[in-house]
Sequence to fold (361 residues):
Amino acid sequence: MTLRIDISGLPSERLRFAASPLAELTAMLHVLAEPGHHPRLAGWAGEVWAELRPELAERLREAEFLWRSSRADFLVPARPRPTLAEELDDVDRIDDETYVRSALVTTCGSNRVRFAAPSPLTDATARERALDLAQARGARQEAFAERLLADPAAVRARVRHTLEQCADAFFDAAWTSVAVQLATDLRLKNDLLKRRGIGAALASVSGAITLTPDGDCIIVDKLQDKTTAARGTGLTFIPSVFGRPHLVAVHAPGWQPVVQYPVAEPSPSEPVSLETVTLRLQALAHPVRLRLLRTLARGPHTTGELAHAWELSPPEVSRHLAVLRRAGLLTARRHGRYIHYTLDLSAIRTLGTDLLSAVLR
Fold:
């Protein structure tokens, strides 16, 4: 299960390492939405929430559709700019169709984006399907999707204003605090790229990223099977302090490939009993359950969402969820007519940081 990025014939200058204010802001927003993914930053997240004005806090909750379970691709720029304002200007240049398709991605499953499918802006069936998926994520997400489909321009302007308010509220200070660490990492990566080539640079990014022996393809070890090409567009690597343990990859058709990688050190794992480890490893000894686990690591999902995301039947998904629940890896909670399944991150964390990093990549 890998993401393959074809770089055959790619000039060395088209592979770049650069910092992105917008991508780091998005990583911070994900921390605020899912602090359980980032125990080291839980204190920071609590302080930010405590100091946010109520209006901005509500705006973040209504728009978290864009960064909680999956990142909207336009929030991870292929051509990073020096300032957040410049990157937001680039987002403004994206057409409504591309923006809406990216914004309505709800999961990290195998069918995240289908550019050949009818547009939810013009096709009633596609619109109904998009709203149904959003409804399963919750009332706020459904309302956000409805507003976006009804008036994309208004929602886009509101999202930009929200991100600009984040700059004043917490981002500017946090960006300043990580600037030296990001700059140091970029100097290392660019020096390795120049002196020792792409293989050495990739090895310093993550042990989950490798170069094939022929040098024509980058392999990203993620719980998905996808391919993309960087030959005509280039490839961008963006360091992140707030992103650990996620390894975020933009690979959808129509987008230049981008990889946002963590630069902070992982936290150590905690010991658990052999009996518990054995039970849980048995539950995870199936590739389908690992895929489901990866999606559930992004947030609560219904059986129907998981089936749609990974192109499985609902009964098949239910059987796998039952195995994971018996192992104590999942919890379930009913919300109206939906049952949301949630990954117990603390249980995964006790199995080791390697497994946790794999499912959160």
User: Anything to note?
Assistant: The mean pLDDT is 88. The radius of gyration is 20 Å.
